[in-house]
Amino acid sequence: MEILSKILEARDNRAALREQISKKGNISVSLSLNIAGYPKSDTITEAFFITIINEFERTLLANLITINKSECTIITDADGNFYIAPVSSNTDSKIVKQVCEKFEETHKAGRIIDADVTTSANKSESSGKAKHCIVCKTNAAVDCMRNRNHSIEEVREAAWLLMTDHIKTDKEQKLTNSISSFALKSIIYEISLTPKPGLVDFNDDGIHTDMNYYTFVNSTSIIIPYLNRLALLGTKHIDTSHTDILTEIREIGIEAEKDMFIETSGVNTQKGVIFLLGLAVYASSHIINRYGYFDIRMVSELISSICCDMVKTEMTNNTDSQTHGQKCYNKYGNKFGGARAEAESGLKTAIDYGYSILDNSGFNILKSSNRSEMNKLFTSTLLNIMANNNDSNILYRSDIKTLEEFKTIASDTLNAINNGVNINEAMNSINSFCSKNRISAGGAADLLSVSIFLYLCKLQYSKIS
Known about the structure:
Blueprint lengths: L1 H22 L3 E7 L9 H20 L10 E5 L2 E8 L5 H14 L6 E6 L22 H7 L4 H41 L20 H24 L8 H19 L7 H21 L4 H11 L3 H5 L9 H9 L5 H7 L3 H14 L9 H18 L3 H6 L2 H19 L4 H4 L1 H10 L4 H20 L4
Helix pairs in contact: 2-5, 5-6, 5-8, 5-19, 6-7, 6-8, 7-8, 8-9, 8-19, 13-14, 13-19, 14-16, 14-19, 16-18
């Protein structure tokens, strides 16, 4: 009886809140949950209720129904979770009720949501519709309750399944959106970095005659939806061995490449970044979703596991369709395995020479848009990658001697910038070298995008100690 008394008292308090709003001449909207038995609230219902409030307020706003947020009340009492807010516009209460009904009817968890409307005369705006049973989903809930067709435990379990599924889906969607936005940022940051020796940047096409800044912007817009799919795949995959996931990742990557080539009329702008960034997107999404935080070591180990023995298995075919990396590997040996070797290593070059520079800088690129500082940081990161990467794009177009010279010049250029030399002035030597030898460090550009992406994930999803 004590529990019942507390529930009745809670309902009286809610009625009083509605009355207070009505006395001011306003309509009120409220949210509560249909939870059978007791207790009516726990950590699951609390988390679920917060997501529902956010969705409900968006629905009201989309329907041009304005609420007074400053007078909104959210409480948890003996009767569970409760939200109430006054409608600050002169909207007809029947129209508000129609919006609330549609919200309940179209929501996947709508069966346990009560979205109510009280008029300015303190009268409940009722639809008169009976809700279906949450367990059998065929009979009216009131009939099943009257006939005791289901136990309290069955009804509560059905409600908890709805809530946990919705929380999981909401979490996965938010993570997917965040990860794919980081992928887009990382590519745009790399493309826009100016100057870049031998490479396409905002002001120059480097050594290229078949692509420019806008070619990259256009192809980026095409591949981002596929990176979004890889992020979502990372949240959904539960096989901890990841034995078959490479095939699924590749299928999405192949689709992305096909659309990229259509968009660019056959020009390869981002095949390497689709592969390497795609792996980073999948692995980061999976690790964050599974553990609740980003860990660079776990991401690296996961990618290495997915791509285990990739170089040995895939780099020795002798077909005419070999990639630049395959041709360099077959000609020069194990040190020159291109994107596959980088993947098999768990993105070692990107992490050791790109991500580490960004991480050690302490510069939060999520919270700053200082063009000069961002440009210097990304330039330093790119040059450090160039100085340490066996770039198959350069090796394919030249030889090992030229690659080693390029790496030395990149290191010297980085040292000059670190010692205060103006970036444009410091770049003269390496620009001239690239132009003279007709080389472009496309692999380093891809690794810069990957490095920036990983750092963005770290900034947003670091483990809270």
